[in-house]
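Hi all, long-time lurker, first post. I run a small reading group and we've been trying to get comfortable going from sequence to structure in the token notation. Rather than ask abstract questions, I figured I'd post a concrete chain and ask someone more experienced to write out its structure so we can walk through it together at our next meeting. Sequence below, copied exactly:
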Amino acid sequence: MNDQQSIDEECCTMTSESTPLHVNTAHGRERERRNRSASYGSYDSTTITNITYPYPLTLTNIIATSPPATFDSTTTYRSSSCILSTLSSASNDDISIGPGNSGNGGGGSSGSRSISISAASTPMVSNVTKALENGNINNNDGRALPPLPSMSSQQSILSQLPPRHRVVHSDGSSSTGGGGGRGRNNNNNNNNRSGNDNDNNKSLSRHIPNKNKNNTSNNRNSEPRTKRAACRHSLSSRIKISTTLILLILGLLLCICIIAKYFILLGPSSSKRSTSTSTTTNTRHPTIPRNNNNSNSNSNNNSNNVQNNHEGQNENITELIEKQKSRRSKAEGLFDEMGRYVFEDYDALPTFSNFLPGVAGIYGKPVWSFYVNRGQGISSFGVKSKDFPIMEFHTANNAYQDTPLLGFRTFYQGHRGGVGWGKSDGESFLVEPFDPARTRFAQLYSSRNTQSSSSSSLKKNRKDGGKMKIPPSLVPGAEEAANYPTRSMFIGSNEMQIREVDSVHKIETNVSYYTLPEEDFGAFVRRTTIANIDDKSDRPLHLSILDGLARIQPVGGKLNYQLKTIGRTLEGWMGVDEADHGTMPFFRMSTEPADSAAVVVEEAGHFCLSYIESDEKEFLPIVYDTSKVFGRDSSLTRPLGLFDTTIEDIVAGEQYGSAKTSSAFAAARDVIIHPGQSITITTFYGRANSITDVPVIARRIVQGGFARYKLSRARELVKQITEDVETKTGNKLFDGMVQQMYLDNSLRGGVPVLLGEIDDISQSLSVDEDSRIKVYHLFSRIHGDLERDYNDFVIEPTFFSEGPGNFRDIAQNRRNDVIINPRIGSFNAKLFLTFIQMDGYNPLSVEAVVFTIDDKNECDRLAADAVGYADGHRADREALAGVLCSGSWRPGQLAEMLEKQNIFLMRTLPELIDNVAASAKTSPMAVSKDGYWADHWTYYMDLIESYLQIYPDREEKFLYDELLPYFFSSRVVRPRAKKYVLSRSYNGQWHHVRQLHPTFEDSSRLEQMRHYVNDSSGWYKTEAHYHHNKGGTIVKSAPIAKLFLLATVKFATRDAYGMGIEYEGGKPGWNDAMNGLVGMLGSGMPESYELKVLLNYLKKAAGKYRRRVIVVPEELAALIGKITDALDELGDGEYIPPIQTKTTINKVPSDLFQYWDTVATAREEYRSDMISLSGRVIEYSSSDVIEIIDRWICQVDLGIARAHTIGSHGFEGGDELLGITPTYFSFNVTKWERTGEMSQLGHPLVNAMEMTVGKFPLFLEGVVRMMKTLDKEHATSIYNAVKKSGLRDEKLGMYTLSSSLVGQSYDMGRMMAFSPGWLENQSVWTHMSYKYYLELLRKGMYDDFFTEMESGMLPFIHEKNYGRSLLECSSFIASSAFVDPTMRGQGFLPRLSGTTAEFLSMWVLMMVGPSPYFINDETGVLEMQLVPALPFWLFRHDPTAVDNKQHSIRFKLFSSIDVVYFLSQPRNLFGVAPEKYEIGLRDGSKIVVEGPTIPHHLAMNIRRVVFIQYIVAYF
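-- Answer (accepted) --
Happy to help. Here is the structure in token form:
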């Protein structure tokens, strides 16, 4: 590569091809894209010839100046945008960066941006220019128009290949090339076939020219800039040619050796068998071809030698580079050319489940879907929730068994030659692709001889003398097993594909699935591509095909529970109607199956529409009568109906769909596929509100190229999300995992979009600066899936789709929103602070914000603007105004109401949404349920700290200047006298005091909420969810006051020994498997450590802003006064318990017990007063607050000291001697008195008089939370102790959630019901493990962190043990404590967890540093600096680049700014700021900043994002 290539090129090559959903004018761009899409009557692929598919050519931003008419090698082009993002079609891995031209030479001035364009890159520019001139590229967002290139043309075939292989010629056409051995001919050998979607009908091999040859030709036509450059170029070319020849010769010799060794090992018979099938598949054993034990082992060994560069300890350069290579090698073979994760022989691997994201775009209606690695993958799908299935929801254990039979199936009646199927004069067959009976299980290959020898080998292992006989049908012979088809699964970010290569019948079958995006109806799409891979040109393949769903469920209300309990009875309601005879079945029940006086007639139904893509205009007939396919085989194992009846006869005959569960098979009759060609059957499964909607949907989906375009859009939608954190390091696995983690984090916490951007000014301001801008989170849902079957997910089938989530989940997964998109500002922090209740708790379920417009005149204005002012539009105008002013709504609900009321808009729907959002106000929405979690309040500080990482200059304004309401819930916590009950122990041997049913619904609160019901809708107004005082005014406080209230209540909730925070609200803390701890009067140290963090922050803030006061309700001030009095009475005693032994009984000292009783009583009195607050307030000065907090911190520290003294205990003993903090305590009431009342369950109620402390084994959570309060030295000491404790799983190199729990009481919770090593019982719970790793990184323990990363974190763990994609996290990993050794190290409960939030926090620290924005102590102004923490082995190495640019890492900052780090020499980059920055602005100028920090004005512009193109930092 030319050493003079500009730095700007390096930055711009990373620019994405699409715009993120939520940056700048994101909503507007999505609006324009949808408007363009909706305007097409047909997706005729001939409309655009210069746009490649499925990777559309785009421009980043705008091109301010037209390029010169002609280019030569010396042309210098200045632009205000990063046009070079479109100049290179090569992968980022192929690009090196040389010094820039700014300021010297090339005619460039010091302030301008100079980009050199070689002749090789010129055609791409001309191609872009042509596209712009033809109107084929949108000038605003640079996104390609929807129409597709012709799939029958060479251009369209090439465009299906990934960008790495694409070369653009001088005539504007594109081709592909290998490069790095990646270009492959599409022959019939299975090993050489890509995992592509097989849209093409012909072989691609003749269309793939050599990329290197093409580039060489272009370089040969280029004029060198100087003679020196020409000599250097010539010498470089000769060296490259010589090196290439040597490598080719060595490679050839190596291949000969391998082939010879293969023939020697297998012998003549094996050789012959392999040769006979070589045209289609490799007959290797069905194992994962990615086992990399040696690489992983080397990584672990080398990690111990990593030295911290800031200590001046650098390793040998060669050794460091070798480490880079060893870590990169693991990614080889894990991905296909499209970047999808590959599983070979997927159905023979250990079982796993997964799901498609259910993302259909802002203006799309999603469908949920789950899949497993069995059968044809998809195990269930439907709309909204598992109560509304199209294919019945099954939990994972059932799905693994049922999916091959009850899921998607395909049957071929085929022949080659002769006159028809089943005739004696031809070669006929009936075959089922992906048939589970032909799975390539490893056991089938344990013997390579005959079946009898296989049986003999089994007999040898039997203790009864080998009397058992194996039926021949269960153990196939070696020849038969060797001919079993090979199968692969390709997991993409928004698609899943499976492939089978059948070497016997010479058929390759590819099936891909995706959710239909960006339509006003939801559908799940299946594309089945069938290829004739016979190499004999005179043997066309004649097929009749059934392809579809073995069991489809009708529409009939909520069905999930009923299908599993009264499934046979339900069939009485079932039936099949037809919108068009034979091709448009409509599956629905006659009425909803309810035993009720109110009968609901079912209008909606499920549809199934299918066609062959080369003939979209003709729909295929659908076979829905299951008995016609399977006969009387009720197990659906064998298609008995196809044994003696042709598919054509089945289609022609009668079908019956009443009173039974139907199928949905598309039938293609007598299709002829010539060798090397293929056909694709595309089928849409979805839900329609009426049978009359089905023909309308059918007309939409038959437009030319519709299915292929929608697949490309499905891919692009997820790419738009994940490119926010696009990362390019030396490890592709790590890069892929960053984006996958971000996607999964977004699916649980939501993808933020900005609404209300109605002018140019709003597009550069944050939410805090412009009240018109509103943040709305899309695509969120609770983490329910096949393995988390206990959670009921909801994915609303509307535009702007979203669903509710648990408070903890949403709070954690939105932690990094403001860091990734600064324009969100303080939205999340204020949203969750609003959820603080007066009692210190919060609601459980968080929903999307709602919009309201109270001004009737504003509603009228918006309605008139949207539908027009003419008299003829009066009805629509009044209807829309009524909708806007009738109460609260969400964007998706607004769109639905417009559709139901047939309101015709003069403006587009996106424009209406933006306009009404700008005028509306938003309100948080949440729902309380059956208790209060003790840890939820601990996540407020995470949100605040993230906000202050970007906006430290707005801290005072955030804390003091805005008033937030208190959330009002009808659920309250009972006083102790109403929840302490006397009951028998679990074994019935003794009585003990437990805390049961601690919360209840307060009828007086419900009555108060009923005062705020909307008369028109019958729903609660938003005011109903806010706390009011006696005068009816909503109670509000500044964030600092709400935090002070929170600290007060939590300090008053410490346990009787002053150690942990009591679990008195009915739920435990983060570890919800300790559910029994609530009944044991338990408490938790994690919350005490978080209380210390909160108190320290309040003290710091009060000291920093001493002129400000904190204003609180007088009821809270009364509680503070009672706490102060109790502390005065307690005195200064430390009450440290005696040194512990195994027999020590820790009785709570009477003084501490009296203090606890007094403060708990004061807390209960405070709560009883909250229903009728007086409305009066009390002011606390900063000095008063500091004095109070100092005293509280002292008490918290004393409690921590007592906890350490009492300690923990483990099964093997010794853990209590390591100085590791305990996590939980229980309190046993040893003396009590009855109150004379009974609980609601008939238990006597009691008052506690005396208590003793119970302790538990070690838990990792206590360590994690404690480390937040320690400095690096003490954290290192704790880390070393934990490595020696029972929390360390040495065999896996990971940390378990707890040490051994053997011998613990079942009273502690459900975790005791699980086997050790499984679920929360001593497994590796990845969320808590990642929290632990994050604390190591936060403390600057870089060597320890990266050492742990290599054994305990994705993607560096062993992929064969993990059992699923290394890019996707699991909630837990079975530890070495689990009884079954084959399952140790395997991951379970996939993807949506808090692990993703912890990893993204690590990513921010690694790439950006802990405090990118800070206030300069000397000047008092805002500045910026990047202080990454990156090991050298993560850098990319390019030996062809100049010395100071050979090692680089790239990433996206703030979703859109390209950042490149250059490392001058091999070393670890741990906590070191750059020596120099180069900052490229979007107007084309470039600014160089010498030194480690970026000055104020530039820092502000970077935070506004829109002004900055790239940042290059030199280390």
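A couple of things your group might point at:
The radius of gyration is 34 Å.
The chain has 41 helices and 57 strands.
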